[in-house]
Structure formats: structure tokens, C-alpha cells
Design brief:
By secondary structure, the chain is of the alpha/beta class. It contains seven helices and ten strands. The strands form two sheets. It has a six-stranded mixed β-sheet with strand order 6-7-8-3-9-10, sandwiched between helices. A four-stranded antiparallel β-sheet has the order 2-1-4-5, with helices on one face. Helix 5 packs parallel to helix 6. About 40% of the residues are buried. It binds adenosine-5'-diphosphate and magnesium ion. Adenosine-5'-diphosphate binds next to strand 2 and helix 1.
Length: about 220
């Protein structure tokens, strides 16, 4: 069997203490193979974002193991975690989360600034190539406020790609977009899975969106079925 690129073993995540404890993830066991495109479908509050945060090391599980590309992210030191995350995972959010005072180009390139292994020219070339890939080359000098929601999300996808990670996590990536624009964004994500062979995990509460994935997992009250 192919070794899974993401593996969760007995993962629990609780928020709060005592009577106010919320169990956001309950004994989640999951294996995702490299190159897969998974949609995690479930109602608001069922634990989808928490699942992505735990899988990406943004949040530590209360118990259990999380292996990403054979590395247990729960064991990585806080100091090393950002670097490991940058190498392995691109993240796309519902609200784009672009930096307002940076241009489209700079929003993407800024991800590469900490990388001493790339020259300035290499950083520029990579940024331009990613801008081309998301079809935003002509808008590269615009600031986020000057772009439509769909254009902002293209830039956010470019930013998630520029380190060339094997995994892409998308948290309701079309939640703030009209359906036609959302469909175009989903086509880009599907293309990244097909052509770049990225492993994609996309969470959504929308059944129509799940159709773009190869496989759907249903989540309810912190449990994956
Ligand atoms: N930082 C937090 N503190 C307390 N409770 C949280 C926190 N994050 C999420 N939760 C709770 O965990 C549950 C799952 O939330 P979330 O993963 O955001 O769900 P979804 O993304 O499916 O809407 C919800 O009950 C939510 O209120
Ligand atoms: Mg959420």
C-alpha cells in the first residue's frame, strides 16, 4: 500500500475546561494518500476548521498523533514548526487573509523572503510564474482592496503555492464568493491536484463544492464517518 502523506491516529481536540469543555474532534482516525483530493463535508461548528488546523500544526491536538509526510507535527518544536509548515503545506482561507499594504505580487513574494536558499532573482521568477499560474500577472501591482474577491482568492492561492508544498488545505475557500467565481476557484484547485499532483483537503458545508473532489468524508459533531 502507498504510504499515506497525512495520518491521524486517535486525535482528540478539546477547547475550554470543566463544564465548558467543547470536544471539537473526537477520536479522529484518518489516512490520506499522496495525490488525493478530499472534501470534508459537514455543518457549521462540526470541527472542520479545527481538523485542518490540527493537521497543519497550527493547533496542537489534546491527544493523538498527527503525521504529515512521515513527520509527527505534534513533536516539532515551536521554533521549527513554521519552517516545516511552509515546506509541506499551503493554506487557503475563506477570508483570503491578504496583507492590505502589500501588492498582489508582494503578497506572494513575501512568503519567500525568509528563504536564504533562493536568490532575489529566483524569488522574483517563482513569484511571476505563480502569478501566471493563477492568471493574475496583469494585476500584480494592485493592492487587495483594488481586487475582486475572486482575484484576491487567486492571489491567496498563489501565496499557498509559491513554496511548492506537496499539500494544500482549503478552509471554505469559496465561502465569500458568488457561485460562478467560486466555481472558477474550485477549477484552479482541481487543476493543482491534477497537474501539480498536490494532495488537497478542502473543507466545506456546501454539497455542490464537494463534487469537485475525488472523495468525500462526512463530519458531524467532531466525528468523521
Ligand atoms: N479557539 C476556540 N476556543 C473555543 N472553542 C472553539 C475554538 N475553536 C473552535 N471551537 C469550537 O469547536 C467546535 C468546532 O469548531 P470549528 O472547527 O471552527 O467548526 P467548523 O469549521 O466546522 O465550523 C465549535 O463548537 C467551536 O465553537
Ligand atoms: Mg470553519
Amino acid at each position: 500500500m502507498v504510504k499515506p502523506i497525512i495520518q491521524l491516529e486517535g486525535v482528540n481536540k478539546e477547547f475550554g475546561k470543566g463544564k465548558n469543555t467543547v470536544a471539537a474532534l473526537k477520536d479522529v482516525n484518518l489516512e490520506i494518500e499522496a495525490g488525493d483530493f478530499i472534501a470534508v463535508l459537514g455543518p457549521s461548528g462540526c470541527g472542520k476548521s479545527t481538523l485542518l488546523h490540527v493537521m497543519s500544526g497550527l493547533e496542537a491536538p489534546s491527544s493523538g498523533r498527527v503525521l504529515v509526510d512521515a513527520v509527527d507535527v505534534t513533536l516539532i518544536s515551536e521554533r521549527d514548526l513554521p519552517k516545516v509548515r511552509a515546506q509541506k503545506i499551503g493554506f487557503v482561507f475563506q477570508s483570503f487573509l491578504l496583507v492590505e499594504h502589500l501588492t498582489a505580487y508582494e503578497n506572494i513574494e513575501s512568503v519567500l523572503w525568509p528563504r536564504s536558499d533562493l536568490t532575489k532573482t529566483e524569488q522574483e521568477n517563482r513569484t511571476l510564474s505563480v502569478l501566471r499560474e493563477v492568471d493574475m500577472l496583469e494585476r500584480r501591482d494592485h493592492f487587495p482592496k483594488q481586487l475582486s474577491g475572486g482575484e484576491q482568492q487567486r492571489i491567496a492561492i498563489g501565496r499557498a503555492l509559491v513554496n511548492d508544498p506537496p499539500i494544500l488545505f482549503c478552509d471554505e475557500p469559496t465561502g465569500n464568493l458568488d457561485s460562478k467565481t467560486g466555481e472558477n476557484i474550485l477549477k484552479i484547485i482541481a487543476q493543482l491536484n491534477r497537474e501539480r499532483k498536490m494532495t488537497v483537503v478542502l473543507v466545506t458545508h456546501n454539497h455542490d463544492i464537494a463534487k469537485f473532489a475525488k472523495q468525500t468524508l462526512n463530519m458531524k459533531d467532531g466525528v468523521i464517518r
